[in-house]
Amino acid sequence: MAVVDVINIRGESVSERSLSDTVFNIPVKSEVLHEVVTMQLAGRRAGTASVKRRSEIRGSTRKLFRQKGTGRARRGNIKSPLLRGGGVVFGPKPKSYAYKLPKKVRRQALRMALSSKLQEDKLVVLDRFELDQIKTKEFLKVLKMLDRENALVVTDKKDETLELSSRNIPGVKVLRSEGLNVYDILRYSDLILLEASVASIEGRLSA
User: Fold this and answer.
1) Most buried residue, 29, 34, 89, 184, by CB count within 10 Å?
2) Could you give the 3-state DSSP secondary structure of residue 147?
3) Phi, psi dihedrals of residue 66, rounded to the nearest 5°
4) Which CATH architecture has domain 2-45+99-205?
5) Cβ distance 194 to 152 under 8 Å?
6) Which residues have a Cβ under 8 Å from the Cβ of 72 and sit 6 or more positions away?
7) Do the beta carbons of residue 4 and residue 19 sit within 8 Å?
8) Distances (CA, A) of 81 to 54, 75, 85, 91, 172
9) CA neighbor of 169 nearest in space, from 193, 197, 150, 190
10) Cβ neighbourhood burial of 69 (10 Å; 0-12, 13-18, 19+)
11) Rg of the chain, C-alpha, whole Å
């Protein structure tokens, strides 16, 4: 089992914590992480792009000029896709881009993302992260003491004080353990886990 130091908000080591090898210490495969991140981003696409087809264009259905004798191409009405302002052929319509990878692949990718942070020495375990009030300045002070600027902070339960104190800081996000995902782990340089959240993550991913 990997053993890491548990530190306080002043950056001082207060104890040690063993991390499960099946969750935090497995071989990392970039192709699996790529697949899962692509799936997550595809699910976030709005899919609202839309064009008007010929039948949806507002306009007269009158034939523009007679069929024969003009020397011009046979022309129907003004809604033809060949004319300016006409319908669009094969254009996009609203749709969902979401798709699902197998649950086992998603769980394994989450373990790999956590393992990559441990292997890169970018994983920090905090004993607790408590603020007396909602104050961005205080939150930044703690990050400075920890020497972290771009970080994902994972809590074990809802903490409105932390969430509201961090929401205006670029490069920082506070997330509850049940919402932990591959994209957010990889998006931020450092991963800060509250000690209480480690048990929750291991319980979720060890099975």
Assistant:
1) 184
2) coil
3) -65, 155
4) 3-Layer(aba) Sandwich (3.40)
5) no
6) 65
7) yes
8) 7, 11, 8, 11, 48
9) 150
10) exposed
11) 27
Backbone angles phi, psi at 150, to 5 degrees: -115, 105
Provide the H-helix boundaries in 12-102: 21-24, 30-44
Residue 17 has a CB neighbour count (10 Å cut-off) of: 16
Residue 35 tokens read as 């697949």
Domain coordinates of the chain in residue numbers? 2-45+99-205, 51-91
Residue type, 120: E
| Rounded-to-integer distance, Cα 182 and Cα 2, Å | 21
> Over 189-204, what HEC string results?
CEEEEEHHHHHHHHHH
Closest by CA to 129, choosing from 195, 202, 198, is 195
pLDDT, tens digit only, all 207 positions of the chain: 788 989 998 888 889 999 999 999 999 999 999 999 999 999 999 999 999 999 999 999 999 999 999 999 999 999 999 999 999 999 999 999 999 999 999 999 999 999 999 999 999 999 988 888 999 999 999 999 999 989 999 999 898 999 999 999 999 999 999 999 999 999 999 999 999 999 999 998 886
